[in-house]
Known about the structure:
- The chain has a domain at 1-56.
- The chain contains 12 helices and 3 strands; from the N terminus they run H-H-H-H-H-E-E-E-H-H-H-H-H-H-H.
- Helix 1 runs antiparallel to helix 2 (33-39), helix 4 runs antiparallel to helix 6 and helix 9 (215-229) runs antiparallel to helix 10.
- By secondary structure, the chain is mainly α.
- It has helices spanning 8-27, 33-39, 63-68, 75-87, 91-94, 131-137, 152-166, 193-207, 215-229, 231-238, 243-249, 254-264, and strands spanning 102-103, 109-111, 127-129.
- It is globular, with a radius of gyration of 23 Å.
Amino acid sequence: MIETDLCRNVVNRHVLRIKQLFKWATQNELLPPSAYHGLQAVTGLRKGRTEVRESTPVRPVPDEHVDAARPHVSRQVWAMIELQRLTGMRSGEVVLMRGRDLDTTGSIWLYRPESHKTEHHGHERMVELGPRAQASLGPFLKTDVDSVLFSPRDSAAEQRIERRRKRKSKVQPSQQDRTKQNPKRKPGDRYTADSYRRAIARACELAKVPHWHPHQLRHNYATRIRKEFGVEAARILLGHRSTAVTELYAEIDRGRVRDFVAKVG
């Protein structure tokens, strides 16, 4: 794994999965207990104790780089980007949004994802949507509450309509509908976290800005909330169980630190 240039954290996660596999096999009497017990002596790689490379810390993405991607993404993708910036949602949560998961009765809308990262621990995840997030989400609400709000199929249909609108020459009757009857690749009903990430990557290339990925938007939100309201507010809004995790997401406001030092130092 080290020779394939995986970073230390990824190597350790893979080793943990292998140990869990052996544990499952032992529980189901597919392996003798000695095999799993022997693996307990295998520890993860420690920082500074090996030549394996360290992972690059995830940082917030500059707002100008985010805004530069807007002309090169669909209306649906841009709405998801805006929602992540305004709520700190994970990309896997925003692509799954459905009307049935939303409570729009109050001034603050509530979104309870059907599936989220920590559900297997029995934790509930709830995302609060303020006025700006509601404005971004509103145009995509559907009468079918079981449908996902952001669909590549809807995006493709809108792009066809827009190309037709911009066409200067007259459309011949035989060309009214030139969509392929059985295309090899059809737009899906919903985005995945991976297809959403690829759409942003393409937009970065077209905009000629450094590549950024949607998870960085969560770090942007965490840093802003920590700066304005403190780390505990950031922990609650991000859905973390511990402030130690939030510390990894929220950049420290060095300006405030310098102000404190000026007063007490």
